[in-house]
Each structure stands twice: as structure tokens, then as C-alpha cells.
Known about the structure:
The chain is an alpha/beta fold. The chain is built from 14 helices and twelve strands.
Amino acid sequence: MHRSAEPETAADFESAASALLPPEIWDFVAGGSGAETTLAANRAALDRVFLVPRVLQDVSSCSTRSTLLGRPVELPVAAAPVAYQRLFHPDGERATSRAAASAGIPFTVSTLSSVPIEQVVEAGGSVWFQLYWLRDDAATLDLVRRAEAAGCEAIVLTVDVPWMGRRLRDIRNRFALPAHVRAANIATTATAHERAGAASAVATHTSQEFASRLTWAALARLRAHTDLPVVIKGLLAPEDAERAVDHGVNAIVVSNHGGRQLDAAVAGADALPDIIEAVRGRCEVLLDSGIRSGTDVLRALALGASGVLLGRPLIWGLAVGGERGAIRVLRLLETELHDAMGLAGCENVAAARRLRTSRLPATHSARGGEPLPGPVQAGTSY
């Protein structure tokens, strides 16, 4: 039987990227912290979400268009911040940002980007700047001013990394950055290039640079320091979501850092409904961690999210084909989302957010061979 060589799913890109990248670099992007329990739970939680489709709906003009932070987007998706993308392709963040622009979605450039902010913005499209709070407050706020001057359209403050989680793959590999890859946005005397003892050089560098004393006062200071929309990334507790809204954030990203920080942290899709309830429509809520397909995007919308962040699949596309590979990943996501929305009877994103969901209990698996239970949340609609 003839099989197309062109990847048709994110999983195809994952397989191709794992074969192409050096093992220690593959482990850096693919791995999680600890026993990788939360890494696995992110996928399991999404796989437990089943949709209750509507019928006899006119989906002849089904549209995936939406808005994020008040700006139009072709998909309710933003590219997640991923550090050091020149590890995966020489063009790094330049390629992925151009791909995001081509797909009509925002690109989030990391503090730890291997390409300077200004060069990422020059690639075109809408760019958000992801901020890690550094030990030096003045340097942190200088980064914010630099992002504003470059033309970034939002500040995404990541709050779940007082230090890097124990990523055992990186520790066992004694992972260090190659000479041609560096944190292009920060001036530092620390280095992520030198192996020292039985540790990850990248984790050591992070611990030396990041502020472990980060508190709500920093969010208040950031909110007072910039007129750009402020997004807070890394929340899982509804109490924290309420407090973030009180601090005037424009959006919350429900995230466990892709299973790379606290192992055994709750899966993003499991935390999402409680945060939606706590926020009560006062700001946008996006889901990060585990998104692999357009169907996953629809699941997130049906659970109440405004949209999602897409991380690893975009990197797989970058590794396989540079800008073209990243564009292909995003085009597949668009095709899958359009297909899923139409088959679920959703003519637009607003209709997708009205879909009802049915959840399997965590003790069951959709692939485990057991009979599926009746709807757990069949009466729930967000």
C-alpha cells in the first residue's frame, strides 16, 4: 500500500524529529521532570475529554477565526514560548515566528530565545514577549522596555519557574548548550555551556539567573510598568487565578510547563474548568500543556478556554523542516480544527465554546479496553 512521505499528524513530525535530533537535544525538548508523571497526565487528561456534537447545524461556512487579547487570529492558538530554538534548526526562532505569522497566530518569544527579540519581531506577525523574572529587577524591567520598543504586543509573565525542575534526562546527559546557541536576550556572567559535575548546565544557569523570591508584588510592579496586555502563565489553582484577575491581568495561561516543573502537578485540562469558574469571564483563559491536534483545541474550547498555546509540535516541525516544517504543523492543526468543529456542529469558535463535554474518570482509559462509562459532565456547558 502506498504511503505518503508527507507528515499528516503531529505524531508523524514527532517521530521524524526524534530520528533527526541528537539524543541529548531530543531529551531536552521531549522530557519532563521527575518520573514524568505530569508529562503523561497532560495527554491522558485531554484523552478523557469527549465532546457531545450537535447536528442539523449549518457548518457550510465553518470558521476557525477568533480573537486573542482583542486582536483577530486565524486560529484560537498562540505559539508557546520555547527556549533556545536554534538547538533544533539553525534559523531557530526566526523560522517559527515566520511560520506563526503565515498561519495568522501570535508567536511568543522567550526570554531565553536564541535569537534577539528585535530579530524575531522583524520576521513579521504578532509577537508576544515571555518574561522570566531575573534576580536583577532593573534588568527584568529593561527587558520589558526592550520588548515594547521592538514592537511586542503583550508581556507573558511565567511564574512557575523559581528554578528549573529536576529533569532527569538532562541530568543524566549532563546537558549543556552547544557553543553556537546562547540566551540572546540577557547579558549574563553565568553559562549554560559548561558541564560541571553531575548536573544539567542549563538548569544551573537558570538557577543563577532567575528570581526564586518572585511574589505577587512583582506582578503588580509589572502591571504598573507597562501599558501592554499582561498575561500570567503557569497557574493551576483557582485561588491564584482569582488573585491574578484582581491584579489586572488580561489573560491567564493554565499550564504546568509541559510537565517540566513540579512532577505530579495537576494536568492542565483537569485544572482548566475550575479556573474558568473562578475567573467568571473577567479575563481570557488559555490552555497550555499537551495540545497535539485540532481536536485538542476543540476540547479546550469546549471546556471554556479562549484558546491554547502550542509548544512541542511546532518544535518538531522546526526540527524536521525549518520554517516550512513549522508551517506544515500549523496548517495541519488548522485542517484538523476545521474538520472537528464542522463534525461537532460548530459554525464558529463561539459555538465550540458552547459544546457539552463528557469526561471519563481518571481511573479509566479511552484506550484501555474497558466499557466507557456514561457521561460524567453531560450537563456541563461553558
